[in-house]
Amino acid sequence: MKAITFKSKGEYEYSKDYPVPEPRENDVIVEVSQCGLCGTDVHIYNGEFEANFSVVIGHEFSGTIEEVGDEVTKFTPGDRVTVNPNTICNRCEFCRSGRENLCVTLPGLGVNSDGGFAEYARVPERCVYSIPDTVSFTEAAFAEPLSCAINGINNARIEKGDNVMVLGSGPTGLLLTQLAKLSGAAKVVSTAKRGKRLEMADKLGATETVDVTEVDLVDVVTEVLGEDGADVIIEAVGSETTMKQSIQLAKPGGRVVWFGVSSPELEIPVKPFEIYRKELTIQGSFVNPYTTQEAVDLLAENKVKVGELVTHRFGLDEFDRAIDAYSNDDSRIKVMMEP
Ligand SMILES: [Zn+2]
Ligand SMILES: [Zn+2]
After folding, report:
1. Which of 39, 135, 199, 249 has an alpha carbon 20 to 30 Å from 141's alpha carbon atom?
2. Is the pLDDT of residue 50 over 80?
């Protein structure tokens, strides 16, 4: 089958005769329809995120069940599904205490074992979710990023009437903006460096948008939010600038969620006095504990719009073009691979 594997930093292989996976007892084989290209994949490609090189990459995928293992009970061939790629061990302290996203074995498919940039993927039954006919495969490929965004919003503990700032309007930033609005935020301010993304944030429910190439966010925060300031800041970029700003922008008593994936080497200066004096809560947010079904439900209920985020589509044999579009095309929001 066709598949893309990463070989080493900056090097991938497109293969036409990668072995088709066989199901083990509790696995299904999914014929992959769509698989999103995620920042994490690009970080792995650039050597900025730890992964098992030589595995098939891609963790945001949907498709049709082709084959099931002997012990599989919930699915049959032909079922339309999406996947939670974060396979867990079910044994460690974290799995046993309801914090599966901290499992010592994470992350899973597409990072440490074969994922979705291939014609077929082997997936444990417990990671598979049915999708209704009304949800397209493209939409279903957003279940994973959406489930991560739901975890980010849960961690932000938004209360009705809160003012929320979402720093960054990449694909997941735009999901966070929509979810913040759904959570009852009074104002949702979205920021971006690219006009197309600001337009999209505006369209998807941001009450204000800020072009950070034109103004300093810290200077304009009172202009856009008034004296009330921001109750919740969600950092969805992972850059030094936005990480620092997230602390500066929070009002006293505010909550800061670090959702963006920064380089593991990044260090930022922090003024402990500022955190002390403003009594800030700084909260990390990692992947998607127990949120995949909610993501599928939100897609089925059409409460979160994802289809229009797709700006580029490529076949597996066009991975160079996909990486180029991801990295260099200003109009890019979501790049979708179509195995
Ligand atoms: Zn992802
Ligand atoms: Zn575990």
Report:
1. 199
2. no
Identify the CA nearest to 153 among candidates 171, 177, 169. 177
Q: What's the gap in Å between 225 CA and the centre of ligand 1?
A: 31
* 254 Cα to the center of ligand 1, angstroms: 27
Looking at the CA of 58, name the nearest ligand: 1
Kindly give the distance from the C-alpha atom of residue 291 to the centroid of ligand 2, in angstroms, as a whole number.
17
**Which pLDDT belongs to residue 339?**
95
Looking at all shown ligands, the one closest to residue 104's CA atom is 2
Domains of the chain in start order, with CATH, are 3-142+306-337 (3.90.180.10), 149-284 (3.40.50.720)
What is the spatial distance between Cα 173 and Cα 243, in angstroms, rounded to a whole number?
14
Give 334 Cα–ligand 2 centroid separation in angstroms. 31
The tokens describing 153, both together, are: 């919003």
Selection from 195, 185, 189 nearest residue 246 by Cα: 189
Full-prediction pTM beyond 0.85? yes
Question: Which three-class secondary structure state does DSSP give residue 206?
Answer: coil
